């Protein structure tokens, strides 16, 4: 049984401030199994990831980033409840 539910995740990135860091993370990150897309936002110091929904894929990218000298923290925001006040009765 193989689940292929595409999911989005965000990681906080520490230490990678120059363009070459960002390029390295984006370029090599895409080659990690389970990661279909990765985008580093230097402004917000975050990494946006599209992945297969497998937690191991997230841990793999975290480990990879640590190995090249930076720190990435997975944001726990999977179950976001948005109270917008526009809920129907
Ligand atoms: Cu750098």
Question: What is the fold's blueprint, element by element?
Answer:
Layout: E1 7-14, H1 19-29, E2 35-41, E3 46-51, H2 55-67, E4 71-74
Antiparallel strand pairs: 1-3, 1-4, 2-3
The site of copper (II) ion (CU) has 4 residues, from helix 1.
Architecture overview:
With 89 residues, the protein is an alpha+beta fold. It has one domain: Alpha-Beta Plaits (2-Layer Sandwich), CATH 3.30.70.100. Helices cover 27% and strands 28% of the residues. It contains two helices and four strands. The chain has helices at residues 19-29, 55-67, and strands at residues 7-14, 35-41, 46-51, 71-74. It has a four-stranded antiparallel sheet with strand order 2-3-1-4. The chain is globular, with a radius of gyration of 15 Å. The termini are far apart. 18% of the residues are buried. The mean pLDDT is 86. The chain binds copper (II) ion. Copper (II) ion binds at residues 16, 18, 20-21.
Concise structural overview:
The protein is an alpha+beta fold. The protein is built from 2 helices and 4 strands; from the N terminus they run βαββαβ.
Can you give keywords for this protein?
about 90 residues; alpha+beta; Alpha-Beta Plaits; four-stranded antiparallel sheet; about 25% helix; binds copper (II) ion
**What's the order of the H and E elements?**
EHEEHE
The strands making up the biggest β-sheet line up spatially as: 2-3-1-4
Return the CATH architecture.
2-Layer Sandwich
Task: Provide the domain count.
Answer: 1
């Amino acid at each position: 049984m193989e689940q292929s539910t595409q999911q989005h995740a965000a990681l906080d990135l520490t230490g990678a401030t120059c363009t070459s860091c960002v390029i390295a993370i984006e370029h090599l990150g895409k080659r990690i199994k389970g990661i279909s897309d990765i985008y580093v936002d230097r402004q917000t110091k975050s990494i946006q990831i599209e992945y297969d929904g497998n937690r191991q894929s997230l841990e793999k990218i975290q480990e990879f980033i640590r190995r090249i000298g930076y720190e990435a923290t997975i944001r726990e925001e999977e179950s976001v409840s948005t109270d917008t006040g526009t809920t129907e009765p």
